[in-house]
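Problem statement: downstream parser choked on a complex file, so we are re-checking the raw output for the thymidine-5'-triphosphate run. The parser issue turned out to be on our end (a line-ending mismatch), but while we're here, posting the original submission so the record is complete.
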Amino acid sequence: MRKIIHIDMDCFYASIEVRDNPTLKGKPVAVGGTRDQRGVLCTCNYEAREYGVRSAMPTFQAFKLCPDLIILPVNMEKYRQESQKIKTIFHKYTHLVEPLSLDEAFLDVTDCTEYKGSATLMAQAIRQEIVDTLKITASAGIAPNKFLAKIASDWNKPNGQFVIRPDDIKNFVHQLPVKKIFGVGKVTAKKFEQMGINTCGELQNLSQKELIKQFGKFGLRLYELARGTDHREVETKRDRKSLSVETTFSEDIDNIALCHKAISQLFSRLEHRLQYSSKTKIHKQFVKIKFADFTHTSVECISHHLQLGVFQQLLDEGLQRQNKSVRLLGIGVRFYPDVLEHQLEMEV
Ligand code: TTP
Ligand code: MG
């Protein structure tokens, strides 16, 4: 049994901005694009959430819900610096840290002996240290695996934590809505709803065979997650082998032009993610396509520089393999293994 902590900062960008301008305290504040630029919000504080304002909401819509909303511009450089401070704190506890984004990470504390090995007390201490150093709050989830730890960190948000002990798993997942499973988007959730399945407990009634028939390889994963099982390891950046981004369409699409448009959008996201990646030496580019029937294919080629055109060619190649509409598209890069990367540096 592992001990995993998932830490997620509370309304990260907004907390930083309010911290740096205390006159904003207690007021509804968001960070993102302005109304006249037809912008979208990155996030907002909990005061703004009371009005129904949310991340990724168009700014004009947020103003309709909350006319007093204060919108501040995005200051990535500042958020990146704060993110670095959080990471330094994490590494005091364990080197098994897997950052998921600027404000979120998994920590494997299975072998940590501090706090008599109590992951709950460690999470408490980490959150306190974040408050002391950064003057903003974080929430934590503590569980025997990544899947449950991530759900748990959301349970007592903001500024809270929640523990799922091995003995609690059975009861916890029984009531857990299937929507909480990563990868179960609106479309799959609706499909389940039509089958009378709303909770993981109900999902457990489907056999492995049935799930695989309906969802392919993802079915196998659903079978495990519905039981609170997740064997994925905390993957530190050092051993990161690839980096990818993907999107699931709200409706399956069969239009090639739309697929190409999606690839361009994914490309910007991947470029952005690569800016924060400690690995930079690209070895391959790949495209992943999941079809409406949940079968999937991936196409890759050697490439040392990130190029949109290469992804477009790979997409065309992948689409030719099956004549079906597309449910999900992903693009990514594989990095040189560390040894090779080292060699490459020597050669330069
Ligand atoms: P989240 O952790 O999803 O959100 P949050 O930290 O703002 O709020 P919560 O308390 O619910 O955790 O994302 C972290 C940061 O990433 C967020 O502060 C802003 C950025 N972000 C975007 O830019 N766009 C988005 O759509 C989302 C969800 C987040
Ligand atoms: Mg957060």
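For whoever reads this later: The radius of gyration is 21 Å.
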